[in-house]
Amino acid sequence: MAIVVSSASTIEIDRPGQKPRALIDPFQRAITYLRVSVTDRCDFRCVYCMAEHMTFLPKADLLSLEELDRLCSAFIAKGVTKLRLTGGEPLVRRGIMTLVHSLSRHLASGALEELTLTTNGSQLQTYASELKACGIDRVNVSLDTLDPEKFRAITRWGDLNKVIAGIDAAQAAGLQVKINAVALKGMNEDEIADLLEWSHGRGMDLTVIEVMPLGDIDESRLDQYLPLSIVRSRLAESYTLEDIDYRTGGPARYVRVGETGGGWVSLRLSHTISVSHAIAFGSRALELFTCVLVRMMPLTCDVRCAPRKTTSS
Ligand code: SF4
Question: For the purposes of burial, counting CB atoms within 10 Å of the CB of 78, is it exposed (0-12), middle (13-18) or buried (19 or more)?
């Protein structure tokens, strides 16, 4: 059995033996992109994302790796062609590579066009080659500063050297890397151009993300908020920025940077960890939210019930 969210307020159930119906959003667009949060845990405590002492979901409330595999496979059967694993930090989930290996069968069959993940990079040195061997071609690495002390201040627990080593390993393994940097007032606002030069110099694209006022943190969001309009106008003082039409289904807007060899910077209006942005912006995307909920505007469903009540896909 699979859940179909077919319009603003109805859920249709596929019948056994029927070909699964495609997922259509309330604007009649096919859903082809699924983001899956495989854990709410992380080995960092970024000041804009988590409080230092977090209470995480009880393990029993998380979908098991097998349940995640069944759900992802059901969505793929219903037309999802691009699947992104997120967290928390996806690579700290115990046994995560079992899920990646298992999902890679859908790449081999051609049902899935892309399997990818967003990571903080701390575990990439360990997993980069294996991810590549599973058919993953691209990863997004969250990195807000190149200054080790600022990095520690932002992530509380992170080690910049480990992340850089992870990026090195990813590129050596043949993975394309995109850097995601959250723009933070008073923290990295003077470093965005350096991040741009560094990323493009290493053949990586950069997305600058506006911090979002959601989630349980210890600090004031207002102290962190830096509008992307300011980021853009500051970059425009030093670079030729050309808007381009490229879209990936998410809310980012892409800008080609004339002076850095043709690379682009994208400016995105929300932070993915805190909010199911892809849905909030009405794009053709869906998100399994912290392994428990599936959200698609305007509906939220508890996805634990489906794999726990039936053995059928
Ligand atoms: S922003 Fe990413 S790396 Fe930082 S605490 Fe949140 S999930 Fe972890």
Answer: buried
How far is residue 207 from each of residues 22, 137, 183, 192, measured CA to CA in Å?
31, 18, 10, 10
Ligand 1 atom nearest residue 271's Cα: 1
Ligand 1: distance of its center to the CA of 89 in Å? 7
Residues 6+ apart with CB under 8 A from 289: 37, 276, 295
State which of 155, 157, 188, 289 you would mutate to test the pocket of ligand 1, scoring each by most atoms of that ligand within 8 A of its C-beta. 155
**Ligand 1 lined by 46 (C-beta under 6 Å):** yes
Going from the Cα of 51 to the center of ligand 1, the distance in angstroms, rounded, reads: 11
> Which structure tokens are listed for 179?
């850097």
Q: Kindly list the distances between the CA atom of residue 116 and the CA atoms of 4, 177, 183, 234, in Å, as whole numbers in the listed order.
A: 24, 11, 23, 32
Q: Is the peptide bond between 20 and the residue preceding it cis, with omega within 30 degrees of 0?
A: no
Q: What pTM was estimated for this model as a whole?
A: 0.85
Minimal-distance CA residue to ligand 1 atom 4: 46
Q: What is the pLDDT of residues 243-282, one digit of tens each?
A: 887 766 566 788 888 888 766 778 775 433 322 223 222 2
What are the domain boundaries of the chain?
A: 1-136+283-313, 175-281
Indicate if ligand 1 lies below 6 Å from the C-beta of 45: yes
For 1-136+283-313, CATH gives: 3.20.20.70
Task: State the closest ligand 1 atom to the C-alpha of 43, by its place in the atom list counted from 1.
Answer: 8
Q: Decide: 50 in ligand 1 pocket, CB within 6 A.
A: yes
Q: Which atom of ligand 1 is nearest to the CA of 120?
A: 3
Whole-angstrom distance, CA of residue 58 vs CA of residue 162: 29
Under 8 Å between Cβ of 169 and 125: yes
Q: Is the peptide bond before 110 cis (omega within 30 degrees of 0)?
A: no
Give yes or no for residue 89 having a pLDDT over 90.
Answer: yes
- Interval 160-192: pLDDT, tens: 999 999 999 999 999 999 999 999 999 999 999
